[in-house]
Each structure stands twice: as C-alpha cells, then as structure tokens.
Design goal:
26% helix, alpha/beta, seven-stranded mixed beta sheet, six-stranded parallel beta sheet, 346 residues, 9 helices, single chain
C-alpha cells in the first residue's frame, strides 16, 4: 500500500508546494493488536489549518506539528475491515481527526468514532464536511459567538465564503434568522455560486472589486456579525464597517497561515482601537470546546442536509497520491465547498 509523508517544510512566509509531500510504499498491517481495528481509508480531508502543522512549531497548543518523513494526518473516514475490538465490527464506518494519509490504518478502538452512514444517505464524505468538523465549526460559531437571533435584523459578512466553512456558515446564519448575508470570495464563479445557489444576498469578488466600497452599498446599515475565515486586509476592511456591540467569529486566518505569526494573528493598532471603542467581540474560537454538543449538532446538520435546507458542494480529487496537490489547490482557492480526497469506495 502507499502513504503520503511530509517531505519538506515550506519555510517561513512561503507557500506550500506539492514538493513538500511525497508518496511512498509501506507495509499493510496484518496481525493487529487486541483492542485494535484495521480500517480501509475511504476519504481524506484537506483543510487550511494544516498549513500550520507543516511548520516546526504549529503555533497552536492544540495542533501537533507534522514530523518530516512521517505520514501526514488529518480528518479521515473509513471502514473497518478487521476488528479485535469488542465495540467495533467489520463493516462499521469510522472517522478520526488524526487519520494518516495511507490506504489502510491500524487504530486503537478508542481512537476512532463510529458513524452512521444512514444519516447522510450513504455519502460518507459528508462526515468530513457539512456533517463533520466544518459543519460543527460553522454551527457553533454562529450560535455561540455570533449571537445571531431570529428577527434581529442582523447583517452578517462571511469571508472565504465559498469554502468549506464559509459556504455553510452563511446558510446556517440564514436558517437561524439572519436578515442579510454577504459573502466575500475570490472569483466571479464563486460569487455566482453564493448568490444563485446558496441564496446569499450579495457577494463580493475581492480580487476585482473594492471590498470597502461594495460593503458600503450592500451593507449600508453596517455589519453586525463577521464570520472571519481569512484575516489580513479583508478582515480589517470589514471590521471598519462593523456596528457597535457586534461580533467577529474568529474561524480561520488563511491569509496569515503562511506567515510566522502567532494565532490568532495580532491586528493593527487602529483596528484594535475600533474593536475597543465599539465594544466588538473578537475572541479565539475553538470548536473542540463544545464537544458536549457535538451529537446534537451533527443531527441538526444532517437533518438540514437531508431536507435540502443546507446545500453542500464538494471539490473531489481522486487518489491518495494526489493529496498534496489537493491541499495546495485548496490553499490557493482552487476549491468551491469542501475539498475532499476520494481514496476508495465503501
């Protein structure tokens, strides 16, 4: 079988490339230990936070840096093919946040979570997206940090709006009663997707349009909630137009992940002053702090997806050997919706 390893680090302030990854042959486990399972990998997730793990120091206490020459790990879903664990049977579908990028993986039984394919109508990749960590991140961000309320006549802006979290966050905000949702993204095709398919009220192409002027037109009443996936200049521009007592949901900072800065990255002093004078909240947000609500959240997300209220788009690359290319493409905006690598069928 094959696995993908970290072959080199991009270095400080540099973009990742496919040359940072290598595919090599490895041995498939045969005699697994008591209490363990052997799982066949079905889908792997590539996500922006992984760029931090490519550095010697991830910059976040909850993220372990990848080691050179060892298998990359991240979100994954697979099926049990051999079991010596009483709680898991052959044929069970399982997921893990630390799934190695290889065809078959031996796991201790308590290091994977059994999931039910029926709640996603057999679309197991959704456990890595809309009915997984990105969905939960979007849902709890809106609920716990955004203070979105039905009838509140709120306006929310989403950056990275056509990505895995952004595309879900905007829809969830509307489902929760947000009056207006504006998306910021990097192409006309993405803008069209947001407004025509997801029914965002407006979309701004930051590469060809003046974000500040566009926001003055489409959100003239000001911004009440900002779902921040990118950081940097775009976020500074949005914050300048936020209302008093408004909220920044600090989901991600993809524009800053290639830089040697702490997380969350510091803001310019003039932007910090806006936060202070307008009493705008901008707190570090970690979805893992809401694990007691995960099951309830997963069932809500699955229900919305099944009913068609939450629309899902995936950018799928086939083959474990293309994981590196999928990651690099995602980091440069090549995806719409969740970027997934399809490794094998159930």
């Amino acid at each position: 079988m094959k696995r993908v390893i970290l072959a080199g680090r991009p270095g400080v302030d540099k973009l990742p490339s496919v040359n940072n990854f290598a595919v090599e042959d490895c041995t498939c486990p045969v005699d697994i230990a008591d209490g363990h399972v052997l799982s066949k990998t079905l889908y792997l997730s590539v996500d922006p936070y992984m760029r931090c793990r490519m550095n010697e120091d991830s910059g976040a206490d909850y993220l372990e840096a990848w080691k050179l020459g060892e298998a990359i790990t991240g979100g994954g879903v697979g099926v049990v093919v051999t079991s010596r664990c009483s709680n898991l049977s052959v044929g069970d579908v399982v997921e893990s946040f630390n799934w190695p990028w290889q065809h078959y993986v031996e796991f201790p039984g308590n290091k994977v979570q059994k999931v039910d394919p029926l709640i996603v109508d057999g679309r197991c990749s959704l456990f890595l997206g809309a009915v997984g960590m990105p969905g939960l991140t979007s849902l709890f961000g809106i609920q716990e940090k955004g203070n979105v309320k039905s009838g509140g006549k709120q306006t929310m802006v989403v950056s990275g709006a056509a990505g895995a979290c952004g595309s879900l966050a905007g829809q969830i905000a509307m489902l929760k009663g947000c009056e207006k949702v504006v998306g910021i993204c990097g192409s006309d095709a993405k803008c069209k997707y947001l407004t025509e398919e997801l029914k965002f009220h407006a979309a701004i192409n930051y590469k060809t349009e003046d974000v500040g002027k566009c926001l003055e037109n489409v959100a003239s009443e000001g911004v009440d909630v900002y779902f921040d996936n990118v950081g940097g200049d775009i976020s500074n521009t949005v914050i300048r137009q936020m209302n008093p007592e408004s909220h920044v949901i600090l989901c991600g900072q993809i524009s800053q992940y290639n830089k040697d800065v702490p997380y969350p990255p510091p803001l310019p002093e003039n932007i910090q002053e806006i936060l202070r004078t307008k009493n705008i909240t901008r707190e570090r947000y970690l979805v893992l702090n809401y694990q007691d609500k995960f099951l309830e959240g997963i069932m809500q997300l699955a229900s919305w997806v099944k009913s068609g209220q939450l629309k899902v788009k995936e950018s799928v690359v086939n083959g474990i050997e293309n994981c590196g290319a999928a990651f690099v493409s995602m980091m440069t905006g090549g995806n719409i919706g969740k970027q997934i690598v399809h490794v094998a069928d159930l």
